[in-house]
Model the fold of this input.
Amino acid sequence: MRYRTRTSRKAVVLAAVAALAGGLLAGCAEDSGGDEPGGSSGGGGGGKGKTTLTVGVFGAFGLQEAGLYKEYEKLNPDISIKQNSVQRNENYWPALLTHLSSGSGLSDVQAVEVGNIAELTGTHSGKLMDLGKVSGVDKNAYLDWKWQQGTTDDGKTVGLGTDIGPTGICYRKDLFKKAGLPTDREEVGKLWAGDWNKYLEAGKRYKEKAPEGTAFVDGATGVMAAVHASGKEKFYDKDGELVYKDSPGVKEGWDLAAEFAEAGLTAKLQQFQPSWDQAFSNGSFATVTCPPWMLGYIKDKAGDKGEDQWEVAAAPKPGNWGGSFLTVPEAGKNKEEAAKLVAWLTAPKQQAKLFDKRASFPSASAAYDLPEVKDAKNPYFGDAPVGKIFAKAAEGVPVQPIGPKDGIIQQYLADTGMLGVDQKGTSPDKAWDKAVKTIDNALDQ
Done:
């Protein structure tokens, strides 16, 4: 399981897509021994006349672990691939910006997390190749919203998408049964289909007969982020203007999350903290927003006693939590060969293999009919047809503008704002004002 994508909400909540989806929690990552994103481009160097291509990533990215580098080397005997991995994206990203500015110290291929892609396309696109023009790359093979994320306003595609994090709702069948709610995934999905307010109403029904010591959802901040991710507009508008203070989607997410907190429907937990991990093991809450990579996280934390108790249903409205891109710096010594590698790694067939091996859901919709995706089931989650569930969600994710400071805004709305409502009983209005003041100071508004 690739936990690297988890930062996407932390990059969408801690300035890691959004996230999944970054290196913040990737303790299993192979580390190059420093905080540099690349190292040398290497030129020809791999010995025996081979060209060595370097790939800079953060966390346990999955490409190497899934065996894709070795497969490419077999197909291209004159190519050798070396991966440089920095464990934490908050170290990787600033270093990458520095090396892009100087034009040195870069890998031939550089990964970029979804929470950083808007800054890349908006400010640094001139330092990167246009991968949309590379032979074998078919725009129509990818989800439109994912393709747009890696493309500048003038149509230059500087990042090809690897994975995404379409969201569902993971729920505990045993707790739902005790609370008198349906347990079949189709019936559960109908409880809240199309409307986050129905999710709130389901929570109120759960509370009426809730098993002792349990809550309906993990925390209010998770609810807020899920609602924000499912809207057509969040913190920026389509013209790149900062609109979070007046955005209807932001207000909906804030107000709904506050209602969850004030109605006593949350376990008052902050995601990716030890208490949250322990709550999975204890069965302390009944639902959580989950992209595909979260399934492995739940299995790890809930353990054997959670097997066949957790299930997956469709979310009220699909959003995206996590995902990354591959780019090729213009300053690289092997950029033509690097572009060919990126085109191959992000092709539908390879994305399907990555999902099969690492649970990284494809951003190439052309992969959804391949057996590795279409027929995928998860035995821990009652043999849920996860390939079909998340493919349907992926195709419903809105094309949402991403701004350069999305991560900062989301972080403070959650940690400075909504967390106070949930854990301390702060009034939503006071919490909002505090969060806005912090955000404005951070953005020098």
The radius of gyration is 21 Å. The beta strands are 51-58, 79-86, 109-113, 160-166, 168-172, 215-217, 285-290, 310-314, 320-327, 361-362. Residues 3 and 297 are 7 Å apart (CA to CA).
